[in-house]
Design brief:
- Helix content is about 45%, strand content about 10%.
- It has helices at about 5-25, 50, 60-70, 90-95, 110-115, 120-125, 130-135, 145-160, and strands at about 30-35, 45, 80-85, 100-105, 140.
- Strands 2-1-3-4-5 form a 5-stranded mixed beta sheet.
- Helix 1 packs parallel to helix 8.
- The chain is globular and about 45 Å long.
- InterPro entries: CMP_dCMP_dom, Cytidine_deaminase-like.
- This is tRNA-specific adenosine deaminase.
- Pfam families: dCMP_cyt_deam_1 (PF00383).
Length: about 170
Amino acid sequence: MTADPLRFTALMADAVETCVRHVESGGIPFVGLLVADDGWVSDPGVNLVHETGDPTAHAEIVALRQAVRTRGRSALRGATLLATGEPCALCYRVAAAHGIAAVHFAVDRDTAAAWGFDYRAGYEADATDRQPLAAAARHLAVDRGLAPFIRYLDLHRHDFTSHSSPTTT
């Protein structure tokens, strides 16, 4: 199966809506999912860092873990990772190490930073942008792409005036 941009756009739009619901249930605005070459789509992974205390439970990694449990490790090779927010350096590294072929994101790192989630320092620390997967990653614009970030800010506006901004993807 070849990559279908219209299908990716529809899947990303669904991921954004899942992300809004995750934010409304107390999560942060990051969701990841995988699309395999044979058309299989993973369940969305949501960021569970705060809920679990696991610093590696980023949305993309949660999606990868679920995919491995469902279909085995070989399911990752050649798959496309869709993410509501551009993956952080850790997520790019894990995705590349497990054979993810492409990454598409709804909100880029600079926009995420402007909305209170600034994880850009990690890119320089491990030269993420020189990795082929990160260098080839693409923005996939969808309606309501910013909705999870807007909703998060609406729900946590008081946190931004009295505490430091969140930074975990």
